[in-house]
Amino acid sequence: MAILGNIIKGIISLTDTLSTETNHIENQKEILNKLLETAKETQFGKHYNFEEILNSDNTQEAFRKEVPYFDYNSLHKNWWYKIHEGEEDVTWTGSPSYFALSSGTTGKTSKRIPVTDDMISAIRSSGIKQVTSLNNFELPADFFEKDIMMLGSSTDLAEKDDHLEGEISGISASNIPFWFKGYYKPGEEIAKIEDWDERVNHIAENAKSWDIGALSGIPAWIELMLQKVIEHHNLENIHEIWPNLKVYTSGGVAFGPYEKSFKALLGKPVTVIDTYLASEGYIATQTRPETDAMQLNTENGIYFEFVPMNPDYINEDGSLKQNAPSVSLDNVVLNQDYILIISTVSGAWRYLIGDTIEFKDVEKAEIKITGRTKFFLNTVGSQLSVNKMDDAIQYLEEKFATQITEYTICAKRFEDGEFYHSWYLGTELKEDNSKIVDELDNYLKGANKNYKVARSKALKGVKVNIIPVEKFYDWNDNNKKKGGQVKMERVMKESKFAEWERFVNNNDLK
What we know:
The chain is an alpha/beta fold. It has 17 helices and 18 strands. The chain has 3 domains: 3-13 and 119-285, 3-Layer(aba) Sandwich (Rossmann fold), CATH 3.40.50; 24-116 and 292-374, no CATH class; 377-504, GMP Synthetase, Chain A, domain 3 (2-Layer Sandwich). Helix 13 (386-400) packs across helix 14. It holds the Pfam family GH3_M. Residues 390-495 form the GH3 C-terminal domain.
């Protein structure tokens, strides 16, 4: 009998029962006031008159009017650079204990995003919310006695000046509470290994000694890890070595494109729970099985704003125009893509995180990620978002009974002077190329009216290139972006796409 598991499950159930239905709108008003109150004596708070904003009749409206939008580049150029020069109380009180390194999906140079002790506390609180919400998924008591595999970046953080640096998954894992360490795998020693391939080899070698009940990590890297374990032990599927695996916590990207290839590695179904942890904070988590939408963490150190998605609001470099209107949680609607803006306890203010979202339940503050502002393909007016691209990939998987684990796309002018959407698909699909092109093109015409209009005007057509999925992993490895929070570029500009095509056609290019 799972005595400990029953105790833990009972505590989780009691916590969930005692908690009242969250009022997300009131949470957000309270969070904004706390943020402004705490930061009003910082350099940023004085410059943008936080004291006056707090004394205004409508704090949310005054905040919108007084503080401009920022992205990483503008916030670093104007404010965060001071932190690296040793100044304190810049955009948040004191100095950050950590910096999250993030090259994201757009380049080799790492961003250095402040992570304060207040943010660590907020992430931990959101993590506890995720754990307590497991009560809604009707998991057996013995699940709560199993090991949890968290596959992120290295926890061996680099010391620099008076702080530590690393990817957010490594920072979070290095701050797990003491009571969780007995469940945490691959364990502190293996988690500190910097080289991703070496770390996965150690995981494969030790896999038999662990009883994994849950996995957590970016889908692409979780799949590679599972493949390595299966190959190392000559298995048919991962459940032959981890029979009690019941939960996979995805994060960072939409799980849909990976669903088919992920399931192929399993011996039986698992519960998939989506989460949304970014370098800037723990944004949202799925709290119930009736939906795959995620609930915004409205009570833990982040104030959210939402800009209706419109290509006219976005500058060429992906930043946001200052005249773009924003709304707070009490004014959002369904069936509308929004550009996500956050203000946080790490001193990010009206910050363009780069993602677009859509609300699936306004009262419950439940969202789905629909794409990236920089991945919004609007060349020649096609207005194609990543969620529509993901849907098209899933359609092709079903149509041709195949797996397409990775893809990327560029609106490229070819030798004939015409624009085409040039797709690269990571798959073993053996099919006539013209059939793939027709199915993809026709699907997008039916799914997106702007794409259909563009196809009748400046967008000449679609081109499809089939390549081994390993080429995508090699590309990330070549750009020193393998493992951790790394995601593949879904949309590339022509200059970056030229690099990509040279790499694909020349594996030795470094």
